[in-house]
Amino acid sequence: MILVGLSGAMGAGKSTVATLLAQRLNAHKVTVRTALLEVLGLHEPDRATLQREGASLDERTGGTWLLQHLEDLEAVGHQAIVVDSFRTRRQTLPVLTRFPRAHLIHLHADEATRRRRYQQAAAVDHLKAGSPFDVVSAHPVETEVEHLAQDACLVIDTGAMTPQDVVDTIADHFRLDA
Known about the structure:
Number of helices: 10
Number of domains: 1
Number of strands: 5
CATH architecture: 3-Layer(aba) Sandwich
Strand order of the largest sheet: 2-3-1-4-5
Structural class: alpha/beta
Shape: globular
CATH superfamily: P-loop containing nucleotide triphosphate hydrolases
Radius of gyration: 15 Å
Low-confidence stretches: none
């Protein structure tokens, strides 16, 4: 199985790129938020609850809850998975170790670009709409996510690129076509 995981600060373009990349690779897209809701059995929590419960689950499982979720998807036959998005090393490193064909791509954009993108996303995402950019970006998970760049196979500055350009760069770099 091939696994492509995205990491990066909020507003770097991860969700849009993950959707396009999953389409290009004919892959199953996993959003960590949805996986977390499923594992925790939560329905429409606010961002603070999701962050608190996610941190608690990470602590209880040593971050391996996400690895287990991905192994379950592999067991039902998914040959390609795109993960949107890895947020902590505790979640990421076990996955990269377990799946030999795993690629971590770290996306970056300047703060002004990320702030603009976050505001656009907040128009359609109730969790983002209820949480200001400055508050969310100060959360420990958000400040930690930049450390994942050191574990990435590829780091891309998405600020001046279209999402399709980012997907093309990833696919070309790893020769990842379906």
